[in-house]
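May I ask for a single protein's sequence together with how it folds?
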Amino acid sequence: MTEITILETNLLDYNKGQLKGLPKNPRFFRDYRYEAMKKSIEESPEMLDLRELIVYPYLDGRYIVVCGNLRLRACKELGYTQVPCKILAAGTPVKKLREYATKDNVNFGENDLDIMCNEWDKTELSDWGVEFAPEKKRDEFKERFDAITDDTAIYPLVPKYDEKHELFIIQSGNEVDSNWLRERLCMQHMRSYKTGKIGRSNVIDIKDVRAALEGEMK
């Protein structure tokens, strides 16, 4: 097993594709994730010993960082002059180097968000770099809209009718006027166009309005 070696940071080069067959490091963090990782190293430097950099010997006693390019960047910004590394053998096939670099960047498995939110300290997890989906803003208008029924609608919302029909809206600001209108237009006991049940309605066909008005005029 490769042993951990402490190397000077000035001997370590970021993987920029300088080794033939090993493309440059594809890993990047958005600023807030990078800052969270840097804070994690600052608060728990012992984690570097538990997850050391993996490097490959290159020219003139220098090393290419195969796994841990962002950790190296964070360490340098924090003032580290030495970091723990595992040095791969000089004859390691370049295909293996690509494999190591790729697998180091893959996150296997998923977090159970219910457990994380209910049993872990969410503030701590955020400080340690765990990302949570942004909380959805409450849409009060949608909630009110979804709660509208035939009985509670301020004015009728009638999906049955399309552009071939004209919709007339009579607005009432109080129950007295509403009941008066229903009585005048015989709407207190009408058959619902949706359910077929007889009851008080807010929707009336123009033919019924015409019949009611013509009946009063006779």
Remarks:
- The longest strand covers residues 82-87.
- The two ends are 105 Å apart (CA to CA).
- Residues 140-217 form one domain.
